[in-house]
Amino acid sequence: MKRLRRLLPGLGTYAALYLAFLYLPVLLLPLFSFSEGTIVAFPIKGFTLDWYAQLGEADTLLHSLANSVIVGGSTAVLSTVLGLFAARAYVRHRFFGREISEGIVMLPLVIPGIIVASSMLVLFLFLGLRPSLPAVILGHTFLTVPFAVSILKSAFDEFDPALEEAAYDLGETTIGVFRRVTMPIIGPGIVSSLLVTFTVSFDEFVLAFFLSGNRPTLPVYIWSQIRFPAKLPNTLALGSLLLAFSVLLLLTAEYFRRRAATGQGARKESRDDR
Amino acid sequence: MTAETIIELSGVEKRFGTLTAVRDLDLELVKGEFFSLLGPSGCGKTTALRMIAGFQEPSSGTIRIDGEDVSTVPANRRPTNMVFQSYAIFPHLDVGDNVGFGLHRSGLSRKERRARVSEALELVELGGYERRRANQLSGGQQQRVALARALVMRPKVLLLDEPLSALDKNLREAMQLELRRLQQSIGITFVMVTHDQYEAMTMSDRIGVMFNGQLEQVDTPQTLYASPGTRSVANFIGGMNFLPARLHNEGGGTLDMEIAGFGAMAVGRNPNVADHGRNALVGIRPEQLEIAAHRPEGYDSTVQCRVADIAFYGESIHYFVEVDGVPETMTVAVPNYFHSVDFTRGATAWLGVQAASVIDLGRNRDNETQQGEKT
Ligand SMILES: Nc1ncnc2c1ncn2[C@@H]1O[C@H](COP(=O)(O)OP(=O)(O)O)[C@@H](O)[C@H]1O
Ligand SMILES: [Mg+2]
Fold this sequence. Notes:
The complex is a heterodimer of chains A (274) and B (375). Chain A has helices spanning 2-7, 11-33, 50-55, 59-92, 98-106, 113-126, 133-157, 161-169, 174-203, 206-211, 218-225, 232-261. Chain A is mainly α. In chain A, helix 4 crosses helix 9 and helix 4 packs across helix 11 (218-225). Chain A is globular and about 70 Å long. Chain B contains nine helices and 20 strands. The chains are: A mainly alpha (274), B alpha+beta (375). Magnesium ion binds at residues 45-46, 193 of chain B.
């Protein structure tokens, strides 16, 4: 690392510029959402919360928000359940084809979204599934399973299999072992996976655009609004809210992921007496 | 056995695909004894223990605990409990809930359960630690919690898989004695798995020595040390100088032998040895040899030797010596009496040995190859 820095003295500057280029536009979004003017340009004219207030009255927006929550919630549950099985198998068992299968599961992370989206559309139409929310849910599940698997794998990595054996040895049933040992220890990882997969689905545009049909999700709705210059400030306000919400969810997810990794699950067993 | 049998393994075998991890295991354990399974890593000790615990079903053979055939009974319904090598302390529970974990289904009232937990914690000298978090415990304390958690179940047999291997040396030695004392005071049968011969010898009433999935010998530590039945057992427990010998006459309790380097001696017959033959093998423990500057008096055999190397251990000194007619370098262990190392490398000295110190190891199986290699 040190040698690399000596070889490329401009590396630090480059990194700073790169980050600025990447994130400054994102920071401009909330900035202009408070501006009284309807065009995005400096200098900013006055301060207002009107654009935010107007959001509450837009019916189609609220519908698309509901669609997004339905899609995000279903996706999160589906991909986390799938991820749970996969991660446990990858960490605990050495089986034939494990590495290849892991690679395939991670593939959606690197395939261009537009390709996934168009091929899914073709596939779903072929299977008789018309563009709809269930179609988006399936597409998003495919897309978010890699996130669930990698989060849950790190939770299982820290999990000594002897813990489950010890519980079983102490007379617990298989289900009891899962409830009293596996769940409390893996729990934070599960929460983290649910939050991350929800966020990814909530923010996803391309798949949703192809597969949602006449029930747009929030990003698809925003895209449709960008065509109307008069609606731009509202869109900026909505975008800013979305940004804040996503960051909040991801931070919470990271908190739980770390808790899972350090084994700081629930503190106390419920002391149920019979 | 006259004493009451608690565990009886007969013809127990465990195969993983083509690998046979445990082979034709016959073993009877007595109520209240401290038994150790000793052997090098990978010899099948853990597999044997896990079959007793119920985590693995034998491929063939039967396991009885207290007279009942438990071969197909799963771990959660066997009267055994296990202390895991990693201790497996539940990280999300405090010490009290860890120890009380298994009492959940016992039907005991909360008050009774709490009493049992604190009693078990007292037993392992962790009285009052109920509300400690698992991650606030040292390695030694985790070990005690794991013990208490198993003992609170009042098992008929306590199983321990390398229970001390994760502790550092001083703590390990202290725990050896403490575990032994604990076992004697509660009288539960302990079955411990270890690859550490000293651990097995200091703690156990009896030891079963395993190699390659096969139980080679079951005996008290003293018997294993004094009369090992095979060369591998002799080699694994304590140091041993192996010497080829010729058996001239096997009459009664003694064998007349011509021992390489040491000449004719009458060696006591080892009852644990399977078969004898003209080509014989004997062993002499390093501390049973006397080394002196002049020919020592009163020994059954004395020979001259050259000191090839010296190792200073503090409490003892090891001389590695060469004796004419003995194929391998011999080791002589001498207590460090007066803080002096009496011989230097290259010096000549005398060895003395009593016939009673020579261990009969039966037929010499690699005698043929050794003859072939001779120049
Ligand atoms: N679940 C398993 N599947 C396949 N092979 C195993 C399994 N458990 C143990 N073995 C093999 O059985 C042999 C004995 O293992 P083990 O009982 O753990 O030995 P030890 O405890 O004496 O070190 C080893 O070769 C090990 O690789
Ligand atoms: Mg082992």
